[in-house]
Amino acid sequence: MNFPSKLVKNAVEQLSSLPGIGRKSALRLVLHILKKDKLTVEKFGDSFIQLINRINYCSICYSISDSDTCEVCANPKRDTRIICVVEDIRVMMAIENTMQYKGVYHILGGLISPIDGVGPSEIRVEELIDRVNDNDITEIIFALSTTMEGDTTNYYLFRRLRDYDIKISSIARGISIGDELEYTDEITLGTAISSRMPYSE
Amino acid sequence: MNFPSKLVKNAVEQLSSLPGIGRKSALRLVLHILKKDKLTVEKFGDSFIQLINRINYCSICYSISDSDTCEVCANPKRDTRIICVVEDIRVMMAIENTMQYKGVYHILGGLISPIDGVGPSEIRVEELIDRVNDNDITEIIFALSTTMEGDTTNYYLFRRLRDYDIKISSIARGISIGDELEYTDEITLGTAISSRMPYSE
To answer: Assuming Cys at both sites, which of A14, B22, B106, B163 could form a disulfide with B47, CB separation 3.0 to 4.6 Å?
Structure first.
């Protein structure tokens, strides 16, 4: 692409550095931004500068927080002996939205992925071990994606934690609510049969 | 969505104000941005602030330019008597890439769209008429999208310009190069037959 302006070229390059945004989409977005007034665009740009300069992570669970301790960890009604291990705050937010969980979290900040060069030291594994050593923890729940990376991370964490006197569980894997069995993939269906649960009314 | 941080919420709201980016995608992008280093993110945010504060439009054709006159208008080899009317600089860039056009441009900055409340006064129609009045123009080429808005704008411009002694043309509409006729839609095929051209080897 031959840009008529270096400013436009720069903004397009910045936007297309984000995952899922190509150069053509980025140019469309930049032209959209140019139609807005100065103040709106300054606020837009400044939101990212503020974000990176003022962002704070919870000192306990490493979720993003505006204060030293996040709302979940600071809530006296939460059971701090149960830790749910998640990949990032998106999963934490999704679980919080279910209103089914009363324990606390540990944000790994990624999953082990040898193919992408992400080893255990790149994610917050040692921080989890430290937390288990220093506190009275009764249960750790793995809530990681059912992908190769999620399973690898599950297995690695299990090996690091199995010698502790802690209950280790994983969120249930089975048929999604509303799914029709004839269209469910074989691996999910197989897992659902072998992990069958006592029927309750 | 219940965000754990106002900074994240603000950045997500800013990104999801862009067309085609929903709140879930925006959150994914914000978490991606948070993994980058401070300087990179500051450059990212600053690129938009620089863009809106330093952007300049060509005083002749209204394309985006880093100087008072854009590269096309400033080029003495271009035929300034032929004006190609386009919606925005994306179309201008696409036509420039063909290297088939030696005239100059006029950037409307939008298309007439009554349904979106965009009338002729919202786009640069008067600027085009002024340009025709003040200069020696021999031909005006409409290069607008083949949509309802494009056709409305074509027709409006034609009515404003038809009394001038200027050749008015539109880019050819027909079968795209490489298209198979049996899969071409009826309207395109019908237009292509009624606008048939003399065969040339």
So the answer is: A14
